[in-house]
Each structure stands twice: as structure tokens, then as C-alpha cells.
Write a structure and sequence with these properties.
The structure is a homodimer.
Chain A (H helix, E strand, L loop, with lengths): L6 H8 L3 H8 L7 H14 L5 H7 L5 E6 L5 H16 L3 E6 L4 H13 L4 E4 L7 H9 L2 E5 L7 E4 L1 H14 L4 E6 L4 H12 L6 E6 L6 H13 L10 E4 L2 H14 L8 E6 L2 H5 L5 E4 L2 H16 L10 E4 L2 E3 L9
Parallel strand pairs in A: 1-2, 1-3, 3-4, 4-5, 5-11, 6-7, 6-8, 8-9, 9-10
Antiparallel strand pairs in A: 10-12
Chain A binds a DNA duplex through helix 2 and helix 4.
Amino acid sequence: MSARPTIADIARECGVSQSTVSRALRDHPSISEARKRSIRTAAENLGFESRISARTLRGEGSKLVACVVPSLSHPFMSCLIERLEAEGALQGYHLMVANSGGSPNAEKTIVKGLIARQVDGVFFIPSSFESSAFRLCGSVLPTVVVTLQSPEWPSIGTSHEEGGRLVAEHFMESGRTSCLLIGPHDDEKFRGFDAYLDSRKVAGFRVERLVADGWDEGLTATVQANLLENYDARSIRRFDCIFGNNDLAALGALHALQDLGIAVPAGIAVCGFDDSPWARVSRPALSSVAQPVSLMVRSAFALLQRLMTGETIPPGERSYSLKPHLVVRDSTYLGK
Amino acid sequence: MSARPTIADIARECGVSQSTVSRALRDHPSISEARKRSIRTAAENLGFESRISARTLRGEGSKLVACVVPSLSHPFMSCLIERLEAEGALQGYHLMVANSGGSPNAEKTIVKGLIARQVDGVFFIPSSFESSAFRLCGSVLPTVVVTLQSPEWPSIGTSHEEGGRLVAEHFMESGRTSCLLIGPHDDEKFRGFDAYLDSRKVAGFRVERLVADGWDEGLTATVQANLLENYDARSIRRFDCIFGNNDLAALGALHALQDLGIAVPAGIAVCGFDDSPWARVSRPALSSVAQPVSLMVRSAFALLQRLMTGETIPPGERSYSLKPHLVVRDSTYLGK
DNA sequence: CTGTTAGCGCATTCAA
DNA sequence: TTGAATGCGCTAACAG
């Protein structure tokens, strides 16, 4: 089998110069229709595909965007990636994925690779806004943070605080009075949760925290084990609702409650975050705060486009915060 | 901000020629250690990263591999992708993802893109082995089929037939006598299931089929609705076990049974396929046939490496079939 | 309307 | 041990 054809081969085949072939293939107006047809046919016959690497070297861009995320298998992440790929495909971009596992070190390797590969843009969920690798990425490549937001960086996130408020409100309105919050030490969702309680001058609403963090599937089992270790069927009843920082944690709680024989939502209500597919397949189906993923992805691409043209986004327009909404399902719904 | 540095910039900085820089950076033996150090330092300071596009154009390979799959959010697929990315990263490859949605048409666009991008290799789950796009891909690029297998193509799959046998055996041994198989018209798993029954000369084991197919998350709801439409609490008891072609379908069945108030596994046992995270988070936890994903991914990379060196794999060594194993969980386990 | 030429960044071959 | 020259494939500027 012969090597991959180049425009030179087509040129030879058609008895014209390379530039003519190049122009014909790019539908340049100054080529006669007859030539264009014959050239296109020849290209087709030879199975010609223009090499992106050559165009990239010339400075035309790689038509490749990357996403750097803390997990690829996480149900929310994989949905996000699916949308990014779809939107990218629509706009003529391929999508490269890189798993940082939430590690700043891994981010460093990844970012170097992205630079070497001259990706046109990056969607980034950084381990932290202080991550040096992330900062490098943001300063060298068109980079849009998704899911999170920071006024400093081009970012499109969901307001986790608002999400927390929605959950607090929902719990309050369904008469709950004592909540266990499960998640990392410092989470905006929980600040929003507390803020709602404060704003409503709710007295006597008890809140406790259980620290749990992680991006892999094991989080569910970890939370479950953690709860079973620290509580029994009686002591867990100090709470009548649980809010998990994400669906994985919430499901872990749900499982623990089932193990303890506590009815959900009758005994204790459980709410998650992300509205990932897991929330829908769980039984009882898990109430969860939904991020507007489609909108987020479309907006992120729009923002990235601006960055890719070399535009500097004015500070005021860098950060977008999308409103989440609460999807109430069986795990918190008591009926009327 | 200045443009990205090239080796020319480093050369100027260090007062040497480009070739010296190139050699120093690649640790060529004929450069003095002192020079290497100073050049490396300069490169570091300038934030230099060698452009992959330039090397690719020279014919060094793109260090990019792609995977073409029918879904990116499917729980099994996203786990597979995560492993592919990890293994690739270990070996210095970036991973590009492309979602075919199982459509031959989409595959065509994707494959053209892969050729244009000169990916070094492709992991492909084709919509069918007849797909012209897939065949093109396999003839032009180092391509390894994963999950499925065909003697004709380099492929590493799990024996779905063996998986079906395992389920049949498990159902038999737990005294089940009538099974509903849910999945596409033609599925090897079900052939394996039937084959087991035949081989054991099992008389009186009834088998029926419910056709359901798809790659998106909606499959779960579809199967659930489909069952509820066709059966009620009494008629569904014609069966005492259900085998879903994948975990999504099986979970749909599980939900329908729960809606009908049928105990699982006491009334009807349910088994899935893929052993995806969904099987583990389901309640009752879903028994499922596990594919050896890690092994599959490692073997697939090994096979791809051979292909990438230009080796032609002899017909007899093209196709590998890995043994699945059954993970028994609550949805089929009756206790002793 | 079409051909010639130059250059993108890099590694390598050939000279020194 | 190092430098100069070459070419990978493509497009655009410049000439006809």
C-alpha cells in the first residue's frame, strides 16, 4: 500500500500545480469549476485528507480543544464531556480529554502537553485556582473554567451557593429541622445552605458536618462506611435530612440509611448535587440540584471562541454564574 | 506577551545553532554537558515546549490516539475511556474522544477527521464490522477494536457468549426456570445463554425475549416503561429471572419490578452485563457480568503498539477473547 | 485563472 | 563537537 497522498500527488495526477490543488480544495473563487471538479474527484479517489499538522504548523490552529477534569468516569463529568464533544464536533473541533485526578502535579504534566500540542483552547476544572499549572494554562492558552467560577478567570460555573440555598429552602419547607452536610471542608454549597438559614432567622435548625471528599466512584462506599461507623439507627435520627455535596456522596448516605433500616424520605430526607444519571437510577430516586449543563457548555464555547480570537475579556465579563435548579424526587418528597 | 518560543529563540539566547539546541534537548550524546545544561535552563526560562505539530509533520507520529465509541456518558464507556486515558498517559499518548452514537454516518465524519489529524492509533467500538467508515479506519490507521471481537480485525473483546453462559448457569443453579432476556435482536450473550441451556439438556426452562436497544441513558427508562406497558404484577410472574443485555437495561427491569411490587431477588432475579458502577450503586445491588477492563485496555495498547510499528498481525493472532466473570450481588442472590 | 516561492518548527544529514 | 542546509505538507503572497 502506498503512503498517504498529499496535494502534490493530486497535482501530478491532474497535471496542475500544488497551489491550484490547494485552492481548488478550499473552494477558492479563482479556480474554474471544471478544474475544481476534476481535482476534487482525484482527491476523493486517492482518499486524500489534508493533514491538520501541516496547517497547524503554518499557524492555522489545531482545531483541537482539550478538557482537563478531575475524573473521566464520574457520572457528572462524563455527561459534561459528552456535551463538550458534541458541541465541539458541531463547530469543527476535536476533543482531547485529560484526567488530572484533582492533582496539581498531574495538572502540570497535562498542561505542558497541551502547550506542546498547541490545542486551540482548554476547558478546565482546576484542582484549585491557585494551581500553578492551571495558571500557566490560563496565561498561555485560551482557557475557560467550567463548573466553577472565579472573577479573575474566564469561567462559567453554576452558583453552588444558590444550589445550597435551594436545598435549605426545600428542607425547611418540608418541615425538616436538623441536617447533616456531607462534603469537603470548604464548600460553597454549604455556605449557601447556612446563608439561607441565617437569612430566614431560622432558630433551632441544627446543622452538622461530615467531611468527605473525592472524585472517584469509591466516594459512595466511603461515605456509606463512614456513616455506618459513626452512627447507628438511633443516633442518626438526630438528623431528619442529609445534603450530600454531590450525588455520589448522597447515594452513599442513602445506602447507609437503608442499611440502618431508616425510611427515606419518611425518616430522613436525602438530597444530592449535580443531578447526574445516578440520581435518576437510584431508588428511591434522589433529589438533586441540577446544573444547566447544556447552557453551560454552549456558553463556555462561546467564551472560548472570544478568547481564541485573541480577545482579552474585560474583568467584568469574565465570570458567569448560572442558576441551578432543584429537581425534587422521591428521596425528599413526602407527598402532600 | 511575546509569541511562543521556538528552538531558534533558545539558540539565539545561548549563542549556538538550532541544531545544537535540538540535539541538547533530545539529549544527544555529542553535546557537552555544560552546553546541555545551559540550553536546558534557557529553554526552561523561556517556557519552551517543543511543538508536536512540527514533529508530526516530519513524520514522527502525533502521539495522539483516539477512541471512537457509541457513547461517552454510558457508565461502562466512561470507565473504559478513563482507563484508556490513564494507560495512554503512562505511555506518552494523549487521548482524543469521538462519540459516534452508534451511527455509521457519524463514524464516517469521525474517521475522516482521525485521518486528517494523523492520530497514531484508534480504539474503535464500531457500530458494526460492516461499517464502511470503520473498515476505512482499519485499513488506513492502526486500529484495535475493543469490547467486541472479530477474527478479521485486530480486536480485544470479552466473550459475550461466555458471559451469557455464566448467567444461564447462575440462574439454573439458583433454581430459576423461566427467563426474560432484554436486549437487541441479535446478541451473542443470548446465544451463549441458550447454548448453555441446550448443552445441559435443560427441559422446561422457558425463555422469552424483549427487544430493546440503545446507548444512551434513556434506555433504563425505556425498558422500564416497556415492561410496565406489557406486563402487570401477575403476568410478569411468568418469569422468575431477567437478564438484561447491559446494566442500563437490567436496571430498567429492576425499576419496573419495584413499581409492580415484585420482590427482587425473592420473586424475580435480575442480572445485568458490564458490571458498571450503576450495578454497584443500585439497590438491590445488581448482579452483573464483569468485563476485565484493565486487562482489556492493557492488551489493546499492546496490540496497538504492534500495529503502530507497521507490523501486520497474522490472522490467527488478531482477535483476543477475554473471559468475563459473574459478580453476584443482591439482585440474584437468595442466600443459602 | 494559474504557477513559483517562501516559510511555519523541528530533527537530521552532510560538512566542517 | 558544532553549524548549515534540507524537507516534512500546506497555504498565501507574489508573479505572471
